[in-house]
Write a sequence for this structure.
């Protein structure tokens, strides 16, 4: 009797899992979706010039203890911006002396999980393979759930906000872009 009950329960679980797969019609685990989070109050969207007319006040900030892949990606990002705009942008780490705090607003492109205001708020909404690009307090945050996702965010930023023909980098002042990775197990519910 116990064997029959176990077989019956196993069959039900298999049917539920198969139904979840059929309703989603997706079996590829490499797909991702994106969402743009609108601002709560709808002020006018204004362009923010990061690099324009051969000049910038911005610098790239990366984590002091970043992995080698992220360090290389931040350096390549700097080179990509330089090639596209003709502007040499500074790159620094997020290190501050003990007791010092980073300013609330600064003209920085923050790459990765740096010691900066708002980073915890942005990261808490990300899963491992997700990334976000957010403009907040004059900073642009490009951060992922892990270094690989952050690097994908850098690539997305270059592809979508760097205009090589105009030699500019311009973002909207309400930029809040999140790329969500679709996890296969995310389709299963209990």
């Amino acid at each position: 009797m116990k064997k029959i009950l176990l077989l019956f329960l196993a069959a039900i679980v298999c049917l539920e899992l198969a139904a979840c797969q059929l309703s989603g019609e997706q079996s590829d685990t490499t797909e991702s979706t994106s969402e743009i989070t609108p601002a709560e109050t709808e002020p006018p969207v204004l362009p923010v010039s990061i690099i324009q007319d051969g000049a910038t006040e911005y610098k790239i900030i990366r984590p002091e203890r970043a992995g080698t892949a992220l360090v290389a990606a931040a350096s390549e990002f700097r080179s990509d911006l330089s090639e596209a705009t003709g502007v040499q942008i500074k790159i620094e780490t997020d290190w501050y002396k003990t007791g010092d705090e980073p300013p609330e607003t600064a003209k920085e492109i923050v790459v990765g999980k740096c010691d900066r205001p708002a980073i915890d708020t942005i990261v808490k909404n990300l899963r491992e393979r997700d990334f976000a690009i957010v403009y907040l307090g004059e900073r642009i945050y490009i951060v992922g759930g892990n270094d690989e996702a952050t690097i994908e965010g850098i690539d997305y930023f270059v592809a979508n906000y760097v205009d090589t023909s105009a030699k500019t980098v311009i973002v909207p002042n309400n930029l809040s872009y999140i790329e969500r990775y679709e996890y296969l197990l995310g389709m299963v519910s209990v």
